[in-house]
Amino acid sequence: MPDNPLSAVPAAIARYFRRLGHGQVAAEPATDDGETRYHPCQGRADRVAAELTGRALPPALLDAFQPAPLGPGSPLFVGREAYLQRLQKTVDAWRQQRPELVAVVGPPGCGVTSLLRQIETLLEAGERVDYHALDGRPASAVDALASCAALFDIATVPGSVEELAARINALEPRLIVLDNGHFLACRIMGASQAVRTFGALMVATQERHQWVLGCNDEAWRRLGYVHRADRFFEEVIELAPFEREGLGALLAARLRSAGVALALPEGEAADPAAAEDTDAPAAVGLTDSRIATLQQLSLGRPAPAFFHLLRALEVPTDATALILHPFVRFDYAALDALARMEMFTLAEIAVHGGLTAPEHCSLLHLADHDSQMLLQRLCAMGLLERPAGDTLRYRLVPVHVGAVTQRLHKANYLY
């Protein structure tokens, strides 16, 4: 990645339009070591969506490889059965009137939300789960009381934890799934009391109601370090990134769902051992070696795996199967040259799951114009974006989350 990422944007846009015109994979520029790599800006969700839409890839394929969380009972939910069995034990305990606080934590993009949504498939007739995803962080104890009251459809918000807990405990037992727990991990002034209020309500109602909290692993570590949250949870289900076998099963399920066949470039042979296995990923042109490469490039996260797979496909004019070309890695060299405040910004956004500009100013004690310049520079580098539907909050680009957090850990900005 060049030292001045803004200078690379026009060239990157030009390459996109060249691809849109030809409908096939175009060569990327080579780095000094001779290896062809993507610029991280090409991993931005908005640019990828625009490019893939114009490259004549089958709509069914694009739909199947959407990285959005899966709904209850989705046939695309594969490779996480062991974790679902652990959640089954949680549901059984609730059913036997032995509820407990449970947390499901994992690296961003590893499928925490998809797993939580499958709890609905574990229920019996007449049972229900109330799934809620926090869409912002409570800034005060009053905000926390209001947010928790809303989870139980309590219109008039009591003024204390004790009163609200009593109201909640008077209700019929419920199974509550609270997702996006990273919004509870916050160092902004006043937020600590909000987190403690939320936690106190969960603990005070845990004998009546089953709580399942979904949280990214960076935020969970912060909650444990600052608030000792881990002491109050009976079980913590730690979701790991996909290993090679699980990722292969995931990709194979998506390809079958799309009804799309893949072929390797001329002269490249598929894995002989998979020739007679119609369910193997290699049977649709995805060899074991290619899956291993994808696992390495994506660090076991679906979003970057999908990105590299779709970007490597060519739509031929005279064949039914899409051609799968070799994958191209990203060039993250500029991460090593980021300024200290830029690294702190990436670290805080990784922990919090996303920050608005005012939150960023408050956390790092920056003036508004300094914050905007810093955030916009990281956006220009393709490391941050403001997702559709949430244009006020900056987040790590999903394709780059694994690589960025890995570098932050190595540099001791995350621990």
Characterization of the model:
The chain is of the alpha/beta class and 415 residues long. It folds into two domains: 1-56 and 332-415, Arc Repressor Mutant, subunit A (Orthogonal Bundle), CATH 1.10.10; 81-238, 3-Layer(aba) Sandwich (Rossmann fold). Helices cover 42% and strands 11% of the residues. It contains 16 helices and 13 strands. It has helices spanning 9-22, 45-53, 59-64, 81-95, 112-117, 141-151, 161-169, 191-205, 217-227, 244-258, 288-298, 302-311, 340-352, 357-364, 368-380, 401-410, and strands spanning 37-38, 102-106, 129-133, 175-179, 210-216, 235-238, 262-263, 313-314, 322-324, 329-330, 355-356, 384-385, 393-396. The chain has a five-stranded parallel beta sheet. The chain has a three-stranded mixed beta sheet with strand order 7-9-8. A three-stranded antiparallel beta sheet has the order 11-13-12. Residues 1-27 have low confidence and may be disordered.
Can you tag this structure with a few keywords?
Rossmann fold, 415 residues, single chain, 5-stranded parallel beta sheet, Arc Repressor Mutant, subunit A
What is the β-strand count? 13
- Share in β-strands: 5-15%
| SS-derived structural category | alpha/beta
SSE succession = HEHHHEHEHHEHEHEHEHHEEEHEHHEEH
* Total count of helical runs of at least 4 residues: 16
Largest sheet: 5 strands, parallel
Strand order of the largest sheet: 3-4-5-2-6
Count of spatially separate domains? 2
